Amino acid sequence: MTYVMSDLHGMYDRFIAMLEKIDFSDSDELFIIGDIIDRGERPVDILEYVMDKPNITVLLGNHEVMARDFLRRLTAEITDENTASFDNDFLVELAIYKHNGGIPTINRLIALPPDKQQRVLDFIDSLYAYEAIDIGVSTFVLVHAGLGNFRKDKKISEYSLYELLELRPDYERQYFDDDSVYIVSGHTPTKLISGKWEIYHSHNNIVIDCGAAFGGRLACLRLEDMAEFYV
């Protein structure tokens, strides 16, 4: 079976509880479409768990992109050269990252030995921004936020990270003429769309961020039959 989650945001215990709830096994496949890190207390624990699982694919979220450069510079050996790079602009951006939930990720990462820090950072660097998978007669485009600034003649490879990971799309618009193509995204908590902490379906858009880090629920969608699971 093929499962999709999003916006775990450091909620390690809920993540493990969800894997148990869906009885996730080596014969299943899981896609996590961004924002594993930040906000919750155990973001690095989730990263270390998924890094070693060949049947778990992680895609970039805006939080992973926001963290990449900061984490490398913060974990680098302190020298006169790299300390000079901590200019005012960097410190302002770092403050913004912390305000957006980055403190647990920073604290957990710098507590690791240097070799494990490097492995986690290399893993984040390896992540892709989107994936398209076929399940039966349907195609699912998996992307953190959606297809921002959509144009019918625009190839997905032409989208910027900002358009894929941050811009919020129009969920009441069907983006593809083919009724068998769906966009599965997170990023926007569903309560802001429908008023409910549950997976939102509209016009072949499926939004699965049910606000685990904001008092809502962690959601998981099984693509073969659209079964929904919540923790």
Describe what this molecule looks like in 3D.
This protein is α/β, with parallel strands linked by helices. It has a domain at 2-22 and 128-230: 4-Layer Sandwich (Purple Acid Phosphatase, chain A, domain 2), CATH 3.60.21. 35% of the residues lie in helices and 19% in strands. The chain has helices spanning 12-21, 43-51, 62-75, 80-84, 88-110, 114-125, 161-165, 191-194; strands spanning 2-5, 29-33, 56-59, 130-135, 138-143, 181-185, 200-202, 205-207, 219-222, 227-230. The chain has a five-stranded mixed beta sheet with strand order 3-2-1-9-10, with no helix packed on it. A five-stranded mixed beta sheet has the order 4-5-6-8-7, with no helix packed on it. Helix 3 (62-75) packs across helix 5 (88-110) and helix 3 runs antiparallel to helix 6 (114-125). This is Calcineurin-like phosphoesterase. InterPro entries: Ap4A_hydrolase, Calcineurin-like_PHP, Metallo-depent_PP-like. Residues 3-190 form the Calcineurin-like phosphoesterase domain. It comes from [Eubacterium] siraeum V10Sc8a.
What is the compact description of this entry?
This protein is an alpha/beta fold.
